[in-house]
Design brief:
The complex is a heterodimer of chains A (114) and B (111). Chain A has 114 residues and is an all-beta fold. Chain A has no helices and eleven strands. The termini of chain B are far apart.
Chain lengths: 114, 111
């Protein structure tokens, strides 16, 4: 399968700071990447669709000014959680889709906001 | 939009027995149905997928069936082993739209 790399794997930060998470497709080009949020023992909640060279499409209820997404190249998408607060603590996971529609996930980032 | 329902939420089976997880979807235009396995603290891994032009697909101990008329699809795991214990997610999508996931099934295989 395709390889999607995500960094960092774990972040602990103070309330009010911003955190950037990187998602890279290592062996293929991804015009579209997806960002999900997962709470403990819960399903994957789609936050936004990241499109290379254009603005991200956010799901209803997701604040675009809080969760900034940039997809500047065919292999890199970044999610920046701005002014993080404890309620933003969660497992964030990115994914990239191949042309045959198969979706591969990054290893996830556990964000803890103190 | 698409809505995917998944049952059961938890499933316990004895080692060697079969496990079946069922999902239903709402959008008849959906044509791609993957299944993911997620172990604790790890990324979801694609284990098998099926497209709407196929009714059944098998890969060793894992099989998926699709009933387009009824809009449901199922995952079958035979001869279960302890390492099959994980959370399994079904999903559905149509071309160029994001996958919509079910809520997951926690499978426990008891040795």
């Amino acid at each position: 399968g395709a390889v999607v790399s995500q960094h960092p794997s774990r972040v602990i930060c103070k309330s009010g700071t911003s955190v950037k998470i990187e998602c890279r497709s290592l062996d293929f080009q991804a015009t579209t990447m997806f960002w999900y949020r997962q709470f403990p023992k819960k399903s994957l909640m789609l936050m936004a669709t990241s499109n290379e060279g254009s603005k991200a499409t956010y799901e209803q209820g997701v604040e675009k000014d809080k969760f900034l997404i940039n997809h500047a190249s065919l292999t890199l998408s970044t999610l920046t959680v701005t002014s993080a607060h404890p309620e933003d603590s969660s497992f964030y996971i990115c994914s990239a889709r191949l042309v045959n529609e198969k979706l591969f996930f990054g290893s996830g980032t556990q964000l803890s906001v103190l | 939009g698409e809505n995917v329902e998944q049952h059961p939420s938890t499933l316990s089976v004895q080692e060697g027995d079969s496990a079946v997880i069922k999902c239903t979807y709402s959008d008849s235009a959906s044509n791609y149905f993957p299944w993911y396995k997620q172990e604790l603290g790890k990324r979801p891994q694609l284990i098998i997928d099926i497209r709407s032009n196929v009714g059944e697909k098998k890969d060793q101990r894992i099989a998926v069936t699709l009933n387009k008329t009824a809009k449901h699809f199922s995952l079958h795991i035979t001869e279960t082993q302890p390492e099959d214990s994980a959370v399994y997610f079904c999903a559905a999508s149509k071309r160029n739209t994001p996958l919509v996931f079910g809520k997951g099934t926690r499978l426990s295989v008891i040795a």
